[in-house]
């Protein structure tokens, strides 16, 4: 059995100079708004979790360059995600769409 975490530990949110974070293969469905404290984060791996949407708090991280959301049951992508994610250089959404496609939220 692999160890999984269903929520982000509060202590993690105090690591404000953290640049790379892998939270892959957990039971995560959401991120707290306080995740925005990780303003130095440039690479974030949220693959193989249970996100139904890209968390908006992630798209507002100013230093984020690489985001993996692969293998999540994404139901929709927010209309403004491209404008919010202006710094992104790499976005992975492989195997992440319920029913094979994601719809744009209105």
Beta-strand fraction estimate: 15-25%
Overall pLDDT level: 84
Read across the widest sheet, the strand sequence of neighbours is 1-2-3-5
The helix-strand sequence is EEHEEHEE
Q: Could you name the ranges where pLDDT drops below 50 across 5 or more consecutive residues?
A: 100-106
Main sheet overview? 4 strands, parallel
Q: Number of helix segments?
A: 2
Shape descriptor reads globular
CA distance, first residue to last residue: 40 Å
By secondary-structure content and strand pairing, the structural class works out as mainly beta
Total strand segments: 6
Report helical residue fraction.
under 10%
Architecture blueprint of SSEs:
Elements: E1 20-22, E2 43-45, H1 56-59, E3 66-68, E4 76-78, H2 81-84, E5 90-92, E6 103-105
Parallel strand pairs: 1-2, 2-3, 3-5, 4-6
Describe the 3D structure.
The protein is mainly β and about 110 residues long. It is built from two helices and six strands; from the N terminus they run ββαββαββ. It has a four-stranded parallel β-sheet, with no helix packed on it. A two-stranded parallel ribbon has the order 4-6.
Main attributes?
mainly beta; 4-stranded parallel sheet; two-stranded parallel ribbon; globular; disordered C terminus
Concise synopsis of the structure shown:
8% of the residues lie in helices and 17% in strands. Strand 2, helix 1 and strand 3 form a beta-alpha-beta unit. The N and C termini lie far apart (40 Å).
